[in-house]
Amino acid sequence: MIDQMRLTMLLSVLVAGLLIANIYGEFYKVNAKAPENILVIGHTIDIHSMTLRQKIAQMIMAYGNPDDKALYQQMDIGGIFLTAMETPDAFNKTTELMQRNSKIPFFIAADVEGCINPFENFAKFPSLADIKTSEDAFAVGKSQGKLMHELGLNMNFAPVVDTRDTIWNCRSFSGTPDDIADKAAQYVTGLQSEGIIATPKHYPGKTLSVRDPHRLLTYAVIDDSDIEPFAKSEMAGAGAVMISHVIGSGAVDTEGKPAVTSKKAVATLKKDFNGLVVTDDINMLGLMRYYGRSDGRYIDLFAAGNDIVLDVASSPDKISHIIDVVEGAVHTGKISESQIDNSVKKILNAKGFKTI
Length: 356
Prior knowledge:
The chain contains twelve helices and 13 strands. The strands form four sheets. It has a six-stranded parallel β-sheet with strand order 7-6-5-4-3-12. It has helices spanning 2-29, 52-58, 69-75, 88-99, 134-150, 177-192, 224-235, 263-270, 285-291, 296-303, 316-331, 337-350, and strands at 39-41, 44-46, 60-63, 79-81, 107-110, 155-156, 197-198, 219-222, 240-243, 247-250, 276-279, 309-311, 354-355. Residues 1-34 have low confidence and may be disordered. The relative contact order is 0.12. Helix content is 43%, strand content 12%. It is of the alpha/beta class. Strand 3, helix 3 and strand 4 (79-81) form a beta-alpha-beta unit.
C-alpha cells in the first residue's frame, strides 16, 4: 500500500514537472548560454565571447523585480529599472541583491526628477519647475546623485529638458529655452559628479506640451529651440539621452513614425552625440497605438540605432520573445550585427569595461 502511495506521489510529481516544463520549456529553451561563457579579464571583456542573444539582452532594461534576478542574469539583461520603496535600506538590499553574482553588472536606473521621486518616502527634492537658477540646478543634481550612489543606483532618467510642460506642470525646468538649457547642463554636471549617468529627455522635445504619449499618438512640430537643451546637455558630457515616441516634423523629421523607431531621428541625435541613446518605455500607448500588436516594433526599435531599449512592463518570458524576434531579424539582415556590437561596446564602456 505504501509503495503504491509512493508510486502515486512520484507520478504526480512527474506529471506536474512535465506540465511546468510544457509551460516554461519554451522560455528556457531559448535562453542563451549561461554568462560563464563571457570572457572577462580584469576590466576587459572579449565581446566576441558573447553570443548574439547575450549582446541583444545587454541592450534591454527591464523592471527590477528581485524574483526575476536569476533569469535576468542567465539571459544577461543589461539593466533594471526601480520604482518607489519605503526606506533606503530597502533600496540598498535590492540593488545589492540584484548585482550579486552578476558577470556583467546591471545598469540600475530610476526616474529621480523631483516632481517624480521614487525616494519620496525618505528624501524630498524640489521639482525641476521650482529650480530658479543654474547654481541651484547643479546643487539638486549633485544631491540626487549622491543619494542614488549611496543606494546602489548608477543611472538617472533625468533631467526632463522639454521647453514646456503643460501636461504635468512640474517635470521640466522653467524659463526661456536658454535658461532651460543652462539649468539642464548644470544639473547634468552635478549629477554625474557623483558617478550617476544623466539622461536628458525626451528628445526631440514637445513630449509634455502637445498630447501625452503615455496614452496617445503624439504629433509635434519640432523647433530649433526644442533641441537647444539637448545640445547643451550633450556638451556638458551627459552619458545618455532618452528618445521619445513623438512623431516629429520640422527641425527633427521622424519620417511619420515615432522618433524612437525612426532611423533618421536617431541618426540626427547621434550625429553630435557619442553617449547612450535610451528609448522611452516601449509599452507606452504612443508607440503601441502606432504598431498595434506587431512584433515589428521590436525590430524597428533595434534597427533604428537605439542603444538601450527600456521595457518596464514585460515578464522575463516576453523579454525572451523580444530577443527571439531581434535575433531572427539579425539573421535575416533586417538588423546589422555590427550595429548591435557597437551599441554593446558603448554599454560596456559606460559600465567601466574595455572591450576587445
